[in-house]
TrEMBL record:
This is Nucleoside diphosphate kinase. The keyword Kinase applies. It catalyses: a 2'-deoxyribonucleoside 5'-diphosphate + ATP = a 2'-deoxyribonucleoside 5'-triphosphate + ADP; a ribonucleoside 5'-diphosphate + ATP = a ribonucleoside 5'-triphosphate + ADP. GO terms for molecular function: ATP binding; nucleoside diphosphate kinase activity. Residues 12-159 form the Nucleoside diphosphate kinase-like domain. The lineage of its organism: Eukaryota, Viridiplantae, Streptophyta, Embryophyta, Tracheophyta. Coiled coil: none annotated. ATP binds at K20, F68, R106, T112, R123, N133. The chain holds residues 60 to 229 of 229 of the full protein.
Amino acid sequence: VQRCRIVAAAEVEQSYIMIKPDGVQRGLVGEIISRFEKKGFLLKGLKLFQCSKDLAQEHYKDLKDKPFFPTLIDYITSGPVVCMIQIFVILSCKAWEGVGVVASARKLIGATNPLQAEPGTIRGDLAVQTGRNVVHGSDSPDNGKREIALWFKEGELCEWESVQTPWLIE
Ligand code: IDP
Ligand code: MG
């Protein structure tokens, strides 16, 4: 019985995930990507990228009045980042209803302050300070869309199906 439906790409919730410059410098790229891979998310885009101040400011525009904004922009532009798009392949499967990739990725990432992030989360296991918290994840599906449009061009996205899907979802 086919209980799951592979939904059209446009319907699928997508999260923008980014390994920040400290994650790249500390050799954590493989470790961090691996956590999303092992969870069962599908990677739809991936690149190493040096971003401009303009792009960093646009990405974090909601925080522009915070006292730490200038150092945040310096941090994010201080070296290459790894940009990723993570999706769930199937949204309309009963077991997954109401669970989106955006919220689920935020759980894997953990709290903004790594000292408060639970062990088992990326920040909880791999970082100690808010200003060096190794990874970014979209905080809402709308911001996921906004961020993916900022960081990726159309030709950089891959539509593909993973052979793992039937082993991830009954
Ligand atoms: P989030 O990354 O968990 O969504 P936000 O509040 O959106 O957290 O903040 C964006 C980023 O800004 C954080 O991940 C962190 O790198 C930085 N940041 C947030 N608060 C502080 C702070 O108090 N001091 C220094 N950097 C901060
Ligand atoms: Mg945020």
